[in-house]
Amino acid sequence: MTDDAAEPPDGSDPPDGVQDLEYDNEPFTYDGGRVDPGESANIRYGISETYLGDPVRIPVTIVNGPYPGPTVFLSAAAHGDELNGIEVVREVAHDWDHTDLHGTLVCLPVLNVPGFLAQERYLPIYDRDLNRSFPGREGSTSARRMAHRIFRNFVAPCDLGIDFHTSTRGRTNMLHVRANVNNFTVNRLARAFSSNVVIGGEGPSGTLRREATDAGVPTITVEMGEAHRFQRRLIDRALTGVASVLAEFGCHPDSSVHWPGWRTVIDADDEKTWLRADAGGIVDMKRGRGALVEEGEVICTITNPFKEEDEVVTVEAPFTGLIVGVLENPVVYPGNPLCHLVGLSADTRIALEREQTTERSRSEL
Ligand SMILES: [Zn+2]
After folding, report:
1. Domains contained in the chain, number
2. Are residues 230 and 296 located together in one domain of the fold?
């Protein structure tokens, strides 16, 4: 675990061979069109066809700024019922002033259109996971063909990317970044997004962030809140993160990078666990998303329909940590996840306690 609890990062030098790139003022081109510097375009781009032979088209907004700079993609709803990121991407694309933009924004608010229409996580046919199908392949399954059209046209040409998700239906996540922090630029991107919590790891193969990063487009995932909702506070925090990333990478050179006040970076070896139910029943969750819990503290109880006291199962925190993800739908089978707990160092804990003394403010994370 690395902590930036006490003070902002010092902007350490990149390793040899990694430098800020020089950019030219170039058109953004995709299969079928181009968007010149100083112009923007709203596109409905065909990635598949329905049973009726109609096109399945994803909405894409390209904003090519008047000044040279990196090309950044912002994507959401690779899982069709994860809505918070849709509003983040739409507000960046359509509500922000881009007259001073250095570089290009490729805004992809709804990647999984069939899932979005059905309000389901997966592509409805055969329950394929679009976010395990990247970078996709021509001549392969329907999911991989869709992924290929998206990836080749709107991901591969970019320099950086941010893919927005929420927790799976029935649970909620604290806003946090998932990123391969061993990659210099991914780490820089993850920190620039200015979330309090960054969880390291390269991600499963087939995910957009893993495959884009492997293809030379450093990409992070942002997890925020729950499915089927727009959660305004989380959306606003994510917009702050996007603005901070654009400042860090020179897209808005006059803006400054946001410092979240405290930050903890959880590596693969650090303490983190999904606590799972050992009994079926009805869950009384005592602590919420973003809560700091002490080792041995009761996080929830599981009871049967009769609330029989000798049948109550008490779930305690195995170590002191932060609740990053938690059950919302209060029913479980044995083995179902209850909460995602990550360990905190003493320094981070002090910074967190100093900044946020009430459970209420933490539940807004
Ligand atoms: Zn997701």
Report:
1. 2
2. no
Cα of 171 from ligand 1 centre, angstroms: 12
Q: Tell whether 212 and 294 lie within a shared domain.
A: no
Cα 144 to middle of ligand 1, angstroms: 17
- Mean pLDDT, range 310-337, rounded to an integer: 95
Residues 157 and 247 placed together within one structural domain of the fold:
yes
CATH number of residue 152's parent domain: 3.40.630.10
Percentages of the chain per state (helix, strand, coil), in multiples of 5:
25, 30, 45
Pair (132, 218) in one structural domain:
yes
- 260 and 293 share a domain? no
Last residue of a domain, one of 266, 300, 325: 266
| Residues in Cβ contact with 198 at an 8 Å cutoff, skipping those fewer than 6 apart | 176, 177, 178, 179, 181, 190, 191, 263, 264, 265, 266
How far from the centroid of its chain's Cα atoms is residue 209's Cα? 9
Q: What angle, rounded to 10 degrees, do the helices at 184-192 and 232-248 form?
A: 130
SS3 149: helix
174 and 303, same domain (yes or no): no
Q: How far is the CA of 22 from the centre of ligand 1 (A)?
A: 33
* Mean pLDDT, residues 10-15 taken together: 48
Angle at 239 between CA 235 and CA 242, to 5 degrees: 135
- Based on the fold, state whether residues 325 and 197 are members of the same structural domain: no
- Cα of 253 vs centre of ligand 1, distance in Å, is 31
Q: Verify that 299 and 207 share a domain, yes or no.
A: no
Judge whether residue 96 has pLDDT over 70. yes
Among the listed residues 272, 263, 267, the one whose alpha carbon sits nearest the alpha carbon of residue 199: 267
By the CB criterion, residues less than 5 angstroms from ion ligand 1 are 79, 82, 165
283 alpha carbon to ligand 1 midpoint, in Å?
A: 24
Percent of the chain exceeding pLDDT 90 equals: 84
Specify the range with the lowest mean pLDDT, choosing from 60-74, 119-133, 157-171, 204-218: 119-133
Can you give the residue range of the structural domain that contains 243?
A: 2-266
Least confident of 123-127, 248-252, 283-287, 322-326: 123-127
pLDDT at 5: 46
